[in-house]
Amino acid sequence: xxxxxxxxxxxxxxxxxxxxxxxxxxxxxxxxxxxxxxxxxxxxxxxxxxxxxxxxxxxxxxxxxxxxxxxxxxxxxxxxxxxxxxxxxxxxxxxxxxxxxxxxxxxxxxxxxxxxxxxxxxxxxxxxxxxxxxxxxxxxxxxxxxxxxxxxxxxxxxxxxxxxxxxxxxxxxxxxxxxxxxxxxxxxxxxxxxxxxxxxxxxxxxxxxxxxxxxxxxxxxxxxxxxxxxxxxxxxxxxxxxxxxxxxxxxxxxxxxxxxxxxxxxxxxxxxxxxxxxxxxxxxxxxxxxxxxxxxxxxxxxxxxxxxxxxxxxxxxxxxxxxxxxxxxxxxxxxxxxxxxxxxxxxxxxxxxxxxxxxxxxxxxxxxxxxxxxxxxxxxxxxxxxxxxxxxxxxxxxxxxxxxxxxxxxxxxxxxxxxxxxxxxxxxxxxxxxxxxxxxxxxxxxxxxxxxxxxxxxxxxxxxxxxxxxxxxxxxxxxxxxxxxxxxxxxx
Length: 492
Prior knowledge:
- The protein has helices spanning 24-33, 40-49, 51-64, 85-92, 126-145, 147-153, 157-161, 179-190, 195-209, 224-237, 272-283, 289-297, 301-314, 338-344, 372-395, 398-401, 419-429, 436-452, 466-474, and strands at 75-83, 97-101, 171-178, 329-337, 351-354, 358-362, 409-418.
- By secondary structure, it is α+β, with helices and mostly antiparallel strands.
- It has four domains: 15-73, no CATH class; 76-209, Gyrase A, domain 2, CATH 3.30.1360; 224-244 and 270-323, no CATH class; 329-417, Gyrase A, domain 2 (2-Layer Sandwich), CATH 3.30.1360.170.
- The strands form two sheets. Strands 4, 5, 6 and 7 form a four-stranded antiparallel β-sheet that branches. The protein has a three-stranded antiparallel β-sheet with strand order 1-3-2.
- Helix 1 crosses helix 3 and helix 11 crosses helix 12 (289-297).
- The longest helix is centred in the last third of the chain and has 24 residues, at 372-395.
- It is globular and about 85 Å long.
């Protein structure tokens, strides 16, 4: 084994401003590993020397073939300055990036600067906003400078004083993000209702796309999530009084509502469909989660489908479903060969627990069943591997013995994932292009889940089956006036 340093993050002031400096070359080189026998260093040399060819390779592999994770090899370090706390919430909502933020717990923020939203500039409310934010800083500065409070609270004074600061208070973030997640940030930000977020999206595109145009490509606003939310709200508003009531009204409470435990129906694995529905209701209303659960628990399958249809209708095949679908967890156990496990382990958002490989259990591919001679020779190798495994285990160690096993040998696996990740898994692994063994496993999972949870798994299928599944359950919505068909939008 040999580990070689292919590259490292360095300050941009210390690298040349030339085309070979693009992070696309790393992505292109690593993308070719799966189809080329050449050494990694050779692949990297080729990519650096032929940037146009590297970019064409990225275009083909990432966007046409759908291997989006290749874009994650390109990483950007970004200074994000003077962003409001609301913008910070949007940025840090994205999980697959790294953030270090200037902390209000330790740094004094008393200079009275704040982000005035473009939406309020030049309006009659602008002066009121300026006065209110100024008064917040006045109180903050008073508390932070009080000697008696400093003596009483010590280093914890700023931590408590910061509670009065507004969400307009600007801060700075050091952001490290790969190209795939950056592209996601850009497309989501472009569709955001806040102009500050849209401006962040625009600037993020400007500083990254010229450096990696083959990786930062689909950047038009992605508003499928907002469309789905609007339609869910419409479904709720047209469903009578179930979603209205005193819980939805805004009021001033004598005492603030504490954290506490929801007193409603507990979450159980027997009723995950209504749990997802309750989360969608909660997210699109001002109801407490307890009440949302009560409403979802009383809904018929047809009413649940009315709630899920806006999601199924608006989310294109390449997009992850909303996080509400993470409320349903699935735990599966099965045997899988080393060959298929190579596909399974790439699902990083799942929990995968394994046993050692079983030397007495293996998968026999169809090619080795095509003749008696091939079958006998294949099985002979499996048996000899098993026997040698036993000998090494007795002499040395079971872990060392695994070296003599094959890609055909199987192990037991626990695979735990939420439904949102399961949709991603099935999109890839039940697709016609997937590896055969894992496709069989994925298809069995789909079959079992559709029996138990038919409503929430209505669109659970491989990429190749998505158009047909969508047509079957949504044919009646062909002329519903919701806008362009997400299936006809640009795909990754």
